[in-house]
Amino acid sequence: xxxxxxxxxxxxxxxPLGVKIAAVVVGLPVLVxxxxxxxxxxxxxxxxxxPVVFHYIPWFGSAAYYGMDPYKFMFECRDKYGDVFTxxxxxxxxxxxxxxxxxxxxxxxxSTHVSAEDAYTHLTTPVFGKGVVYDCPNDMLMQQKxxxxxxxxxxxxxxxAELMVKEARAFFANNLKVTKxxxxxxxxxxxxxxxxxxxxASRTLQGKEVRDSMSTHFAKLLxxxxxGFTPLNFMFPNLPLPxxxxxxxxxxxxxxxxxxxxxxxxxxxxxxxxxxISALQGSVYRNGVPLTDRDIAHMMIAILMxxxxxxxxxxxxxLLHLAxxxxxxxxxxxxxVEHFGNPDGTFRDMTFEETKTLPLMDACIRxxxxxxxxxxxxxxxxxxxxxxxxxxxxxxxxxTYVIPKGHFIVAAPGVSxxxxxxxxxSTEWNPARWFEDGGVAxxxxxxxxxxxxxDYGFGVVSKGTESPYQxxxxxxHRCVGEQFAYLQLTVLVAEIIxxxxxxxxxxxxxxxxxxxxxxxxxxxxxxxxxx
Length: 531
Ligand code: HEM
Prior knowledge:
Blueprint: H1 2-7, H2 10-14, H3 17-41, H4 63-68, H5 70-81, E1 84-89, E2 92-97, H6 99-106, E3 114-115, H7 116-128, H8 138-151, H9 154-176, E4 185-188, H10 189-206, H11 208-212, H12 217-226, H13 231-235, H14 242-266, H15 276-280, H16 293-324, H17 326-340, H18 352-355, H19 359-371, E5 378-382, E6 386-387, E7 402-403, E8 408-411, H20 413-417, H21 440-450, E9 453-455, E10 460-462, H22 482-499, E11 500-504, E12 512-513, E13 520-521, E14 525-530
Helix pairs in contact: 9-10, 9-22, 10-16, 12-14, 14-16, 16-19, 16-22
The site of protoporphyrin IX containing FE has 24 residues, from helix 8, helix 16 and helix 22.
Keywords: Heme, Iron, Membrane, Metal-binding, Monooxygenase, Oxidoreductase, Transmembrane, Transmembrane helix
Transmembrane segments: 21-43
GO molecular function, one term: iron ion binding
Protein backbone atom coordinates (compact mmCIF):
# COMPACT_ATOMS: atom_id res chain seq x y z
CA UNK A 1 0.00 0.00 0.00
CA UNK A 2 2.79 2.37 1.03
CA UNK A 3 4.64 1.70 -2.23
CA UNK A 4 1.47 2.49 -4.25
CA UNK A 5 1.10 5.80 -2.45
CA UNK A 6 4.80 6.60 -3.10
CA UNK A 7 4.19 6.06 -6.84
CA UNK A 8 1.49 8.74 -6.90
CA UNK A 9 2.95 12.03 -8.28
CA UNK A 10 3.61 14.89 -5.85
CA UNK A 11 1.02 17.20 -7.44
CA UNK A 12 -1.73 14.67 -6.71
CA UNK A 13 -0.81 14.74 -3.01
CA UNK A 14 -1.06 18.53 -3.13
CA UNK A 15 -4.70 18.48 -4.30
CA PRO A 16 -7.38 19.42 -1.74
CA LEU A 17 -9.10 16.40 -0.11
CA GLY A 18 -12.48 17.27 -1.71
CA VAL A 19 -10.95 17.16 -5.18
CA LYS A 20 -9.29 13.81 -4.42
CA ILE A 21 -12.58 12.31 -3.21
CA ALA A 22 -14.42 13.67 -6.26
CA ALA A 23 -11.75 12.19 -8.53
CA VAL A 24 -12.16 8.76 -6.94
CA VAL A 25 -15.98 8.96 -6.96
CA VAL A 26 -16.07 9.90 -10.65
CA GLY A 27 -12.91 8.17 -11.81
CA LEU A 28 -13.49 4.73 -10.32
CA PRO A 29 -16.83 4.07 -12.04
CA VAL A 30 -15.39 5.38 -15.32
CA LEU A 31 -12.46 3.01 -14.94
CA VAL A 32 -14.78 0.08 -14.15
CA UNK A 33 -16.94 0.85 -17.19
CA UNK A 34 -13.86 1.21 -19.38
CA UNK A 35 -12.48 -2.14 -18.24
CA UNK A 36 -15.88 -3.76 -18.77
CA UNK A 37 -16.11 -2.37 -22.31
CA UNK A 38 -12.53 -3.41 -23.10
CA UNK A 39 -13.12 -6.92 -21.78
CA UNK A 40 -16.06 -7.29 -24.16
CA UNK A 41 -14.32 -5.79 -27.17
CA UNK A 42 -10.75 -7.02 -26.80
CA UNK A 43 -10.73 -10.27 -24.85
CA UNK A 44 -11.21 -13.46 -26.87
CA UNK A 45 -14.65 -14.99 -26.51
CA UNK A 46 -15.40 -18.60 -25.62
CA UNK A 47 -16.95 -19.87 -28.88
CA UNK A 48 -19.02 -22.46 -27.06
CA UNK A 49 -20.96 -19.78 -25.16
CA UNK A 50 -23.80 -17.71 -26.60
CA PRO A 51 -22.81 -14.11 -27.41
CA VAL A 52 -23.20 -11.63 -24.56
CA VAL A 53 -25.21 -8.48 -25.25
CA PHE A 54 -22.90 -5.48 -25.15
CA HIS A 55 -23.35 -3.44 -21.97
CA TYR A 56 -21.49 -0.62 -20.26
CA ILE A 57 -22.07 -1.23 -16.57
CA PRO A 58 -20.99 -4.56 -15.12
CA TRP A 59 -23.56 -6.34 -12.88
CA PHE A 60 -26.28 -3.88 -13.93
CA GLY A 61 -25.87 -5.05 -17.54
CA SER A 62 -28.88 -4.57 -19.83
CA ALA A 63 -31.36 -4.13 -16.97
CA ALA A 64 -32.61 -0.69 -18.05
CA TYR A 65 -33.06 -1.53 -21.71
CA TYR A 66 -34.67 -4.92 -21.09
CA GLY A 67 -36.85 -3.57 -18.28
CA MET A 68 -38.19 -0.66 -20.30
CA ASP A 69 -39.23 -2.59 -23.39
CA PRO A 70 -38.31 -6.28 -23.36
CA TYR A 71 -39.71 -6.94 -26.84
CA LYS A 72 -37.79 -4.10 -28.49
CA PHE A 73 -34.69 -5.33 -26.68
CA MET A 74 -35.17 -8.94 -27.76
CA PHE A 75 -36.01 -8.16 -31.38
CA GLU A 76 -32.94 -5.90 -31.65
CA CYS A 77 -30.71 -8.48 -30.00
CA ARG A 78 -32.05 -11.16 -32.32
CA ASP A 79 -31.06 -9.05 -35.32
CA LYS A 80 -27.57 -8.61 -33.88
CA TYR A 81 -26.80 -11.92 -32.22
CA GLY A 82 -29.26 -14.51 -33.53
CA ASP A 83 -31.91 -16.52 -31.68
CA VAL A 84 -29.70 -17.34 -28.69
CA PHE A 85 -27.87 -14.69 -26.67
CA THR A 86 -27.00 -13.88 -23.09
CA UNK A 87 -27.62 -10.61 -21.32
CA UNK A 88 -26.66 -9.45 -17.86
CA UNK A 89 -29.50 -8.57 -15.53
CA UNK A 90 -28.41 -7.31 -12.11
CA UNK A 91 -25.67 -9.90 -11.82
CA UNK A 92 -27.65 -12.77 -13.34
CA UNK A 93 -26.73 -14.31 -16.69
CA UNK A 94 -29.96 -14.56 -18.67
CA UNK A 95 -29.76 -16.58 -21.87
CA UNK A 96 -32.62 -15.91 -24.22
CA UNK A 97 -33.60 -18.67 -26.63
CA UNK A 98 -36.09 -17.36 -29.16
CA UNK A 99 -38.55 -18.89 -31.58
CA UNK A 100 -40.40 -22.17 -31.29
CA UNK A 101 -37.09 -24.08 -31.20
CA UNK A 102 -35.80 -21.82 -28.43
CA UNK A 103 -39.03 -22.23 -26.48
CA UNK A 104 -38.63 -25.97 -26.84
CA UNK A 105 -35.26 -25.77 -25.07
CA UNK A 106 -36.68 -24.08 -21.98
CA UNK A 107 -40.39 -24.84 -21.84
CA UNK A 108 -39.96 -28.31 -23.30
CA UNK A 109 -36.78 -29.04 -21.33
CA UNK A 110 -36.48 -31.89 -18.86
CA SER A 111 -37.03 -30.96 -15.20
CA THR A 112 -33.51 -32.24 -14.50
CA HIS A 113 -32.12 -29.64 -16.96
CA VAL A 114 -34.29 -26.60 -16.34
CA SER A 115 -36.08 -25.63 -13.16
CA ALA A 116 -39.01 -23.28 -12.73
CA GLU A 117 -38.93 -23.87 -8.97
CA ASP A 118 -35.39 -22.54 -8.67
CA ALA A 119 -36.20 -19.58 -10.89
CA TYR A 120 -39.37 -18.48 -9.10
CA THR A 121 -39.60 -19.79 -5.55
CA HIS A 122 -38.06 -16.68 -3.94
CA LEU A 123 -40.81 -14.58 -5.55
CA THR A 124 -43.79 -16.89 -5.23
CA THR A 125 -43.36 -18.74 -1.93
CA PRO A 126 -43.69 -15.62 0.27
CA VAL A 127 -46.91 -14.83 -1.62
CA PHE A 128 -48.54 -18.26 -2.08
CA GLY A 129 -47.16 -19.87 1.08
CA LYS A 130 -45.05 -22.94 1.71
CA GLY A 131 -45.34 -26.49 0.44
CA VAL A 132 -46.97 -25.87 -2.92
CA VAL A 133 -46.24 -24.79 -6.51
CA TYR A 134 -42.53 -23.81 -6.58
CA ASP A 135 -41.88 -24.69 -2.94
CA CYS A 136 -42.00 -28.42 -3.57
CA PRO A 137 -40.49 -30.91 -6.02
CA ASN A 138 -41.68 -30.58 -9.61
CA ASP A 139 -43.45 -33.92 -9.46
CA MET A 140 -45.65 -32.63 -6.62
CA LEU A 141 -46.53 -29.50 -8.61
CA MET A 142 -47.59 -31.71 -11.52
CA GLN A 143 -49.95 -33.56 -9.15
CA GLN A 144 -51.26 -30.28 -7.73
CA LYS A 145 -52.06 -29.22 -11.29
CA UNK A 146 -53.96 -32.48 -11.72
CA UNK A 147 -55.99 -31.70 -8.56
CA UNK A 148 -56.76 -28.21 -9.92
CA UNK A 149 -57.84 -29.68 -13.24
CA UNK A 150 -60.20 -32.03 -11.39
CA UNK A 151 -61.79 -28.94 -9.89
CA UNK A 152 -62.40 -27.44 -13.32
CA UNK A 153 -64.84 -30.06 -14.57
CA UNK A 154 -67.38 -29.26 -17.28
CA UNK A 155 -70.05 -29.46 -14.59
CA UNK A 156 -68.25 -26.83 -12.50
CA UNK A 157 -67.63 -24.57 -15.49
CA UNK A 158 -71.29 -24.86 -16.47
CA UNK A 159 -72.38 -23.57 -13.10
CA UNK A 160 -69.81 -20.75 -13.28
CA ALA A 161 -71.19 -19.19 -16.49
CA GLU A 162 -74.44 -18.15 -14.83
CA LEU A 163 -72.72 -16.91 -11.66
CA MET A 164 -70.34 -14.76 -13.71
CA VAL A 165 -73.21 -13.11 -15.58
CA LYS A 166 -74.90 -12.29 -12.27
CA GLU A 167 -71.70 -10.79 -10.90
CA ALA A 168 -71.21 -8.66 -14.01
CA ARG A 169 -74.76 -7.31 -13.93
CA ALA A 170 -74.59 -6.50 -10.23
CA PHE A 171 -71.26 -4.75 -10.79
CA PHE A 172 -72.68 -2.62 -13.62
CA ALA A 173 -75.63 -1.60 -11.45
CA ASN A 174 -73.67 -0.91 -8.27
CA ASN A 175 -70.35 0.40 -9.53
CA LEU A 176 -70.63 1.77 -13.04
CA LYS A 177 -74.04 3.45 -12.75
CA VAL A 178 -74.16 4.40 -16.42
CA THR A 179 -77.69 5.19 -17.61
CA LYS A 180 -79.19 6.60 -20.79
CA UNK A 181 -79.54 9.88 -18.90
CA UNK A 182 -75.94 9.93 -17.66
CA UNK A 183 -74.52 9.77 -21.20
CA UNK A 184 -70.96 8.47 -21.75
CA UNK A 185 -68.89 7.91 -18.61
CA UNK A 186 -65.10 7.67 -18.49
CA UNK A 187 -63.68 4.56 -16.84
CA UNK A 188 -60.28 3.02 -16.31
CA UNK A 189 -60.62 -0.21 -18.31
CA UNK A 190 -57.84 -1.97 -16.39
CA UNK A 191 -59.18 -1.25 -12.90
CA UNK A 192 -62.73 -1.99 -13.96
CA UNK A 193 -61.76 -5.35 -15.41
CA UNK A 194 -59.53 -6.16 -12.42
CA UNK A 195 -62.56 -5.62 -10.15
CA UNK A 196 -64.86 -7.67 -12.39
CA UNK A 197 -62.33 -10.48 -12.73
CA UNK A 198 -61.71 -10.79 -9.01
CA UNK A 199 -65.42 -10.64 -8.17
CA UNK A 200 -66.35 -13.27 -10.74
CA ALA A 201 -63.39 -15.53 -9.86
CA SER A 202 -64.14 -15.25 -6.18
CA ARG A 203 -67.83 -16.05 -6.69
CA THR A 204 -66.97 -19.15 -8.73
CA LEU A 205 -63.56 -20.77 -8.22
CA GLN A 206 -62.81 -19.30 -4.84
CA GLY A 207 -66.19 -19.94 -3.26
CA LYS A 208 -69.05 -18.04 -1.71
CA GLU A 209 -67.24 -17.21 1.54
CA VAL A 210 -64.40 -15.49 -0.30
CA ARG A 211 -66.89 -13.58 -2.44
CA ASP A 212 -68.80 -12.46 0.66
CA SER A 213 -65.67 -11.03 2.21
CA MET A 214 -64.49 -9.33 -1.00
CA SER A 215 -65.97 -5.99 0.01
CA THR A 216 -64.19 -6.04 3.35
CA HIS A 217 -60.88 -7.33 4.56
CA PHE A 218 -60.04 -9.74 1.75
CA ALA A 219 -59.61 -7.03 -0.88
CA LYS A 220 -57.03 -5.26 1.31
CA LEU A 221 -55.13 -8.53 1.87
CA LEU A 222 -55.12 -9.12 -1.87
CA UNK A 223 -53.76 -5.64 -2.48
CA UNK A 224 -50.93 -6.17 0.03
CA UNK A 225 -50.08 -9.56 -1.48
CA UNK A 226 -50.10 -8.01 -4.91
CA UNK A 227 -47.58 -5.42 -3.88
CA GLY A 228 -45.27 -8.27 -2.91
CA PHE A 229 -45.41 -9.61 -6.45
CA THR A 230 -43.37 -7.09 -8.39
CA PRO A 231 -40.13 -7.11 -10.42
CA LEU A 232 -38.43 -5.66 -7.31
CA ASN A 233 -39.48 -8.75 -5.32
CA PHE A 234 -38.19 -10.94 -8.12
CA MET A 235 -34.79 -9.26 -8.05
CA PHE A 236 -34.57 -8.78 -4.26
CA PRO A 237 -36.63 -11.36 -2.37
CA ASN A 238 -36.06 -9.91 1.10
CA LEU A 239 -35.69 -6.20 1.56
CA PRO A 240 -36.45 -4.49 4.88
CA LEU A 241 -39.33 -2.52 3.34
CA PRO A 242 -42.89 -2.02 4.63
CA UNK A 243 -44.33 -3.58 1.45
CA UNK A 244 -42.43 -6.81 2.17
CA UNK A 245 -43.72 -6.89 5.76
CA UNK A 246 -47.29 -6.21 4.60
CA UNK A 247 -46.93 -9.01 2.03
CA UNK A 248 -45.92 -11.50 4.76
CA UNK A 249 -48.74 -10.40 7.09
CA UNK A 250 -51.31 -10.61 4.29
CA UNK A 251 -50.11 -14.07 3.27
CA UNK A 252 -50.57 -15.39 6.81
CA UNK A 253 -53.98 -13.78 7.26
CA UNK A 254 -55.26 -14.96 3.90
CA UNK A 255 -54.01 -18.47 4.50
CA UNK A 256 -55.73 -18.51 7.93
CA UNK A 257 -58.92 -17.23 6.33
CA UNK A 258 -59.04 -20.21 3.95
CA UNK A 259 -58.37 -22.53 6.90
CA UNK A 260 -61.33 -21.07 8.76
CA UNK A 261 -63.54 -21.59 5.70
CA UNK A 262 -62.57 -25.26 5.56
CA UNK A 263 -63.10 -25.63 9.31
CA UNK A 264 -66.57 -24.08 9.16
CA UNK A 265 -67.55 -26.24 6.20
CA UNK A 266 -66.46 -29.30 8.12
CA UNK A 267 -68.56 -28.40 11.14
CA UNK A 268 -71.53 -27.75 8.85
CA UNK A 269 -71.62 -23.99 9.52
CA UNK A 270 -71.25 -23.23 5.81
CA UNK A 271 -72.72 -25.01 2.85
CA UNK A 272 -70.76 -24.89 -0.38
CA UNK A 273 -71.01 -25.35 -4.11
CA UNK A 274 -68.76 -26.56 -6.93
CA UNK A 275 -65.78 -24.51 -5.93
CA UNK A 276 -62.08 -25.24 -5.95
CA ILE A 277 -61.79 -25.64 -2.17
CA SER A 278 -64.31 -28.47 -2.19
CA ALA A 279 -62.56 -30.04 -5.20
CA LEU A 280 -59.14 -29.93 -3.53
CA GLN A 281 -60.32 -31.34 -0.21
CA GLY A 282 -59.70 -35.05 -0.22
CA SER A 283 -56.98 -34.88 -2.91
CA VAL A 284 -54.22 -37.37 -2.22
CA TYR A 285 -50.70 -37.48 -3.72
CA ARG A 286 -49.64 -40.70 -5.44
CA ASN A 287 -47.57 -41.64 -2.38
CA GLY A 288 -50.73 -41.67 -0.27
CA VAL A 289 -50.11 -38.32 1.45
CA PRO A 290 -53.23 -36.11 1.43
CA LEU A 291 -53.21 -32.35 0.82
CA THR A 292 -53.39 -30.60 4.18
CA ASP A 293 -55.74 -27.68 4.77
CA ARG A 294 -52.68 -25.43 4.77
CA ASP A 295 -51.61 -26.81 1.35
CA ILE A 296 -55.11 -26.14 0.02
CA ALA A 297 -55.07 -22.60 1.42
CA HIS A 298 -51.77 -21.91 -0.32
CA MET A 299 -52.96 -23.45 -3.58
CA MET A 300 -56.07 -21.26 -3.43
CA ILE A 301 -53.87 -18.16 -3.12
CA ALA A 302 -51.74 -19.37 -6.05
CA ILE A 303 -54.84 -19.93 -8.20
CA LEU A 304 -56.19 -16.51 -7.29
CA MET A 305 -52.92 -14.80 -8.22
CA UNK A 306 -52.40 -16.90 -11.40
CA UNK A 307 -55.76 -15.91 -12.85
CA UNK A 308 -56.17 -12.38 -11.57
CA UNK A 309 -53.63 -10.30 -13.47
CA UNK A 310 -53.47 -12.45 -16.58
CA UNK A 311 -57.23 -12.24 -17.11
CA UNK A 312 -57.66 -8.61 -16.11
CA UNK A 313 -54.80 -7.56 -18.40
CA UNK A 314 -56.18 -9.58 -21.31
CA UNK A 315 -59.76 -8.37 -20.89
CA UNK A 316 -58.71 -4.74 -20.56
CA UNK A 317 -56.56 -4.93 -23.73
CA UNK A 318 -59.56 -6.54 -25.43
CA LEU A 319 -61.85 -3.67 -24.37
CA LEU A 320 -59.30 -1.09 -25.48
CA HIS A 321 -59.13 -2.65 -28.93
CA LEU A 322 -62.92 -2.72 -29.17
CA ALA A 323 -63.04 0.92 -28.12
CA UNK A 324 -60.47 1.65 -30.83
CA UNK A 325 -62.34 -0.40 -33.49
CA UNK A 326 -66.05 0.51 -33.21
CA UNK A 327 -66.84 -1.47 -36.37
CA UNK A 328 -65.50 -4.63 -34.84
CA UNK A 329 -67.33 -3.90 -31.59
CA UNK A 330 -70.56 -3.66 -33.62
CA UNK A 331 -69.85 -7.02 -35.24
CA UNK A 332 -69.22 -8.54 -31.83
CA UNK A 333 -72.50 -7.07 -30.63
CA UNK A 334 -74.25 -8.53 -33.70
CA UNK A 335 -72.80 -11.95 -32.84
CA UNK A 336 -74.38 -11.67 -29.39
CA VAL A 337 -77.73 -10.62 -30.88
CA GLU A 338 -77.62 -13.49 -33.36
CA HIS A 339 -76.94 -16.14 -30.73
CA PHE A 340 -78.66 -14.84 -27.64
CA GLY A 341 -80.95 -11.95 -28.58
CA ASN A 342 -84.59 -12.06 -27.44
CA PRO A 343 -87.31 -10.45 -29.61
CA ASP A 344 -87.75 -7.67 -27.01
CA GLY A 345 -84.12 -6.54 -27.37
CA THR A 346 -82.89 -8.26 -24.19
CA PHE A 347 -80.48 -11.17 -24.11
CA ARG A 348 -80.70 -14.61 -22.62
CA ASP A 349 -77.79 -15.99 -20.58
CA MET A 350 -75.18 -18.05 -22.37
CA THR A 351 -74.14 -21.48 -21.19
CA PHE A 352 -70.57 -22.71 -20.89
CA GLU A 353 -71.03 -24.83 -24.03
CA GLU A 354 -72.34 -21.81 -25.93
CA THR A 355 -69.32 -19.68 -25.01
CA LYS A 356 -67.36 -22.03 -27.28
CA THR A 357 -69.54 -21.43 -30.33
CA LEU A 358 -68.81 -17.74 -30.96
CA PRO A 359 -66.27 -17.45 -33.80
CA LEU A 360 -65.69 -13.70 -33.59
CA MET A 361 -65.42 -13.62 -29.80
CA ASP A 362 -62.98 -16.50 -29.99
CA ALA A 363 -60.88 -14.80 -32.69
CA CYS A 364 -60.78 -11.55 -30.69
CA ILE A 365 -59.54 -13.33 -27.56
CA ARG A 366 -56.91 -15.25 -29.50
CA UNK A 367 -55.73 -12.10 -31.24
CA UNK A 368 -55.58 -10.17 -27.97
CA UNK A 369 -53.50 -12.92 -26.37
CA UNK A 370 -51.24 -12.99 -29.44
CA UNK A 371 -50.45 -9.31 -29.25
CA UNK A 372 -50.54 -8.87 -25.48
CA UNK A 373 -49.14 -12.03 -23.92
CA UNK A 374 -49.50 -11.17 -20.21
CA UNK A 375 -46.11 -12.72 -19.39
CA UNK A 376 -43.31 -11.39 -21.62
CA UNK A 377 -40.50 -13.56 -20.27
CA UNK A 378 -40.65 -17.02 -18.77
CA UNK A 379 -37.59 -17.97 -16.74
CA UNK A 380 -36.00 -21.29 -15.82
CA UNK A 381 -32.75 -21.90 -13.96
CA UNK A 382 -30.36 -24.13 -15.90
CA UNK A 383 -29.43 -27.14 -13.75
CA UNK A 384 -27.29 -28.99 -16.31
CA UNK A 385 -25.50 -27.61 -19.36
CA UNK A 386 -27.87 -27.44 -22.32
CA UNK A 387 -26.57 -28.10 -25.82
CA UNK A 388 -28.15 -25.68 -28.27
CA UNK A 389 -29.07 -27.44 -31.53
CA UNK A 390 -27.02 -26.25 -34.54
CA UNK A 391 -30.10 -24.75 -36.22
CA UNK A 392 -30.38 -22.27 -33.33
CA UNK A 393 -26.73 -21.37 -32.97
CA UNK A 394 -25.67 -18.25 -34.80
CA UNK A 395 -23.69 -17.25 -36.74
CA UNK A 396 -23.03 -20.55 -38.46
CA UNK A 397 -24.60 -23.96 -38.16
CA UNK A 398 -21.23 -25.57 -37.61
CA UNK A 399 -20.76 -23.54 -34.43
CA THR A 400 -22.87 -24.83 -31.57
CA TYR A 401 -23.42 -23.29 -28.17
CA VAL A 402 -23.85 -24.62 -24.70
CA ILE A 403 -26.04 -22.80 -22.18
CA PRO A 404 -24.14 -23.44 -18.96
CA LYS A 405 -25.53 -24.56 -15.64
CA GLY A 406 -26.25 -21.51 -13.49
CA HIS A 407 -27.58 -19.34 -16.31
CA PHE A 408 -31.26 -18.52 -16.46
CA ILE A 409 -32.84 -19.55 -19.72
CA VAL A 410 -35.50 -17.15 -20.93
CA ALA A 411 -38.41 -18.03 -23.20
CA ALA A 412 -40.36 -15.20 -24.77
CA PRO A 413 -43.36 -16.66 -26.61
CA GLY A 414 -44.51 -13.09 -27.29
CA VAL A 415 -41.56 -12.61 -29.66
CA SER A 416 -42.76 -15.46 -31.90
CA UNK A 417 -46.32 -14.22 -31.51
CA UNK A 418 -45.36 -10.82 -32.92
CA UNK A 419 -42.61 -11.91 -35.27
CA UNK A 420 -42.98 -10.08 -38.61
CA UNK A 421 -41.23 -13.04 -40.26
CA UNK A 422 -44.17 -15.23 -39.23
CA UNK A 423 -47.26 -13.01 -39.09
CA UNK A 424 -48.48 -10.49 -41.69
CA UNK A 425 -48.77 -7.01 -40.17
CA SER A 426 -47.62 -8.62 -36.96
CA THR A 427 -48.20 -5.64 -34.67
CA GLU A 428 -51.74 -5.02 -35.88
CA TRP A 429 -54.73 -6.29 -33.88
CA ASN A 430 -56.61 -8.14 -36.58
CA PRO A 431 -59.00 -10.87 -35.39
CA ALA A 432 -59.80 -11.66 -39.05
CA ARG A 433 -56.46 -13.47 -39.38
CA TRP A 434 -57.93 -16.31 -37.28
CA PHE A 435 -60.52 -17.05 -39.99
CA GLU A 436 -58.06 -17.51 -42.86
CA ASP A 437 -58.08 -21.14 -43.91
CA GLY A 438 -54.55 -22.46 -44.11
CA GLY A 439 -53.28 -19.15 -42.66
CA VAL A 440 -50.51 -18.83 -40.11
CA ALA A 441 -52.89 -18.26 -37.22
CA UNK A 442 -55.00 -21.37 -37.72
CA UNK A 443 -51.94 -23.54 -38.32
CA UNK A 444 -50.20 -22.17 -35.23
CA UNK A 445 -53.27 -22.79 -33.11
CA UNK A 446 -53.63 -26.34 -34.40
CA UNK A 447 -49.97 -26.97 -33.52
CA UNK A 448 -50.58 -25.48 -30.08
CA UNK A 449 -53.76 -27.37 -29.29
CA UNK A 450 -53.33 -30.60 -31.21
CA UNK A 451 -49.57 -31.17 -31.60
CA UNK A 452 -47.56 -33.91 -29.88
CA UNK A 453 -49.38 -35.12 -26.76
CA UNK A 454 -47.60 -35.63 -23.45
CA ASP A 455 -48.71 -36.45 -19.91
CA TYR A 456 -46.47 -34.62 -17.45
CA GLY A 457 -48.56 -35.84 -14.53
CA PHE A 458 -51.64 -33.62 -14.86
CA GLY A 459 -53.37 -35.41 -17.72
CA VAL A 460 -52.55 -35.60 -21.42
CA VAL A 461 -51.88 -32.17 -22.91
CA SER A 462 -50.54 -30.94 -26.20
CA LYS A 463 -46.84 -30.19 -25.62
CA GLY A 464 -47.24 -27.02 -27.69
CA THR A 465 -43.58 -26.00 -27.55
CA GLU A 466 -43.11 -25.96 -31.33
CA SER A 467 -45.94 -23.53 -32.06
CA PRO A 468 -45.25 -19.83 -32.64
CA TYR A 469 -48.43 -19.18 -30.62
CA GLN A 470 -48.22 -20.12 -26.94
CA UNK A 471 -50.35 -17.73 -24.88
CA UNK A 472 -50.78 -20.24 -22.06
CA UNK A 473 -47.18 -21.43 -22.02
CA UNK A 474 -46.09 -24.88 -23.11
CA UNK A 475 -44.64 -28.10 -21.79
CA UNK A 476 -44.89 -29.24 -18.19
CA HIS A 477 -45.70 -25.78 -16.85
CA ARG A 478 -48.49 -25.15 -19.34
CA CYS A 479 -51.47 -23.34 -17.85
CA VAL A 480 -54.34 -25.37 -16.42
CA GLY A 481 -56.64 -22.35 -16.23
CA GLU A 482 -57.11 -21.90 -19.99
CA GLN A 483 -60.75 -23.07 -20.14
CA PHE A 484 -61.69 -21.04 -17.09
CA ALA A 485 -59.95 -17.97 -18.54
CA TYR A 486 -61.78 -18.31 -21.88
CA LEU A 487 -65.09 -18.69 -20.09
CA GLN A 488 -64.44 -15.67 -17.90
CA LEU A 489 -63.20 -13.46 -20.75
CA THR A 490 -66.12 -14.44 -22.98
CA VAL A 491 -68.82 -13.91 -20.37
CA LEU A 492 -67.47 -10.63 -19.03
CA VAL A 493 -66.72 -8.99 -22.38
CA ALA A 494 -70.03 -10.22 -23.81
CA GLU A 495 -71.93 -8.63 -20.92
CA ILE A 496 -70.07 -5.36 -21.46
CA ILE A 497 -70.63 -5.30 -25.20
CA UNK A 498 -74.32 -6.19 -24.79
CA UNK A 499 -74.76 -3.26 -22.41
CA UNK A 500 -72.41 -0.49 -23.57
CA UNK A 501 -70.86 1.24 -26.56
CA UNK A 502 -67.16 1.87 -26.01
CA UNK A 503 -64.90 4.67 -27.14
CA UNK A 504 -61.22 5.36 -26.57
CA UNK A 505 -60.60 8.58 -24.61
CA UNK A 506 -57.23 9.41 -26.19
CA UNK A 507 -56.66 9.64 -29.93
CA UNK A 508 -53.80 7.16 -29.78
CA UNK A 509 -54.03 3.55 -28.71
CA UNK A 510 -52.57 3.12 -25.18
CA UNK A 511 -48.91 2.28 -24.86
CA UNK A 512 -47.59 -0.66 -22.88
CA UNK A 513 -46.31 -0.75 -19.31
CA UNK A 514 -43.56 -3.35 -18.93
CA UNK A 515 -42.56 -2.27 -15.45
CA UNK A 516 -45.01 -4.64 -13.78
CA UNK A 517 -44.85 -8.44 -13.61
CA UNK A 518 -47.70 -8.61 -16.12
CA UNK A 519 -47.75 -6.59 -19.34
CA UNK A 520 -50.37 -3.88 -18.79
CA UNK A 521 -51.83 -0.96 -20.75
CA UNK A 522 -50.80 2.57 -19.76
CA UNK A 523 -53.57 5.18 -19.40
CA UNK A 524 -56.28 2.64 -20.21
CA UNK A 525 -59.19 5.07 -20.36
CA UNK A 526 -62.37 4.52 -22.32
CA UNK A 527 -65.86 5.99 -22.21
CA UNK A 528 -68.83 3.67 -21.93
CA UNK A 529 -72.31 4.66 -23.02
CA UNK A 530 -75.52 2.72 -22.43
CA UNK A 531 -76.86 1.14 -25.63
C1 HEM B 1 -49.28 -21.42 -16.01
C2 HEM B 1 -50.87 -17.83 -18.88
C3 HEM B 1 -55.10 -17.83 -16.48
C4 HEM B 1 -53.42 -21.18 -13.44
C5 HEM B 1 -49.34 -20.44 -16.98
C6 HEM B 1 -48.29 -20.12 -17.91
C7 HEM B 1 -48.73 -19.12 -18.70
C8 HEM B 1 -50.08 -18.79 -18.28
C9 HEM B 1 -47.97 -18.43 -19.85
C10 HEM B 1 -46.93 -20.80 -17.99
C11 HEM B 1 -45.96 -20.20 -17.00
C12 HEM B 1 -44.59 -20.86 -17.05
O1 HEM B 1 -44.32 -21.66 -17.93
O2 HEM B 1 -43.76 -20.53 -16.19
C13 HEM B 1 -52.17 -17.56 -18.49
C14 HEM B 1 -53.03 -16.60 -19.16
C15 HEM B 1 -54.23 -16.60 -18.49
C16 HEM B 1 -54.10 -17.54 -17.39
C17 HEM B 1 -52.65 -15.80 -20.39
C18 HEM B 1 -55.47 -15.81 -18.74
C19 HEM B 1 -55.73 -15.08 -19.79
C20 HEM B 1 -55.02 -18.75 -15.47
C21 HEM B 1 -56.09 -19.07 -14.56
C22 HEM B 1 -55.61 -20.01 -13.69
C23 HEM B 1 -54.24 -20.28 -14.07
C24 HEM B 1 -57.49 -18.46 -14.60
C25 HEM B 1 -56.32 -20.71 -12.56
C26 HEM B 1 -57.54 -21.16 -12.64
C27 HEM B 1 -52.16 -21.54 -13.88
C28 HEM B 1 -51.36 -22.59 -13.28
C29 HEM B 1 -50.17 -22.66 -14.03
C30 HEM B 1 -50.27 -21.65 -15.08
C31 HEM B 1 -51.73 -23.44 -12.06
C32 HEM B 1 -49.04 -23.68 -13.87
C33 HEM B 1 -47.77 -23.09 -13.36
C34 HEM B 1 -46.64 -24.08 -13.51
O3 HEM B 1 -46.85 -25.24 -13.87
O4 HEM B 1 -45.51 -23.69 -13.23
N1 HEM B 1 -50.43 -19.60 -17.22
N2 HEM B 1 -52.84 -18.09 -17.43
N3 HEM B 1 -53.91 -19.49 -15.14
N4 HEM B 1 -51.48 -21.01 -14.95
FE1 HEM B 1 -52.21 -19.63 -16.23
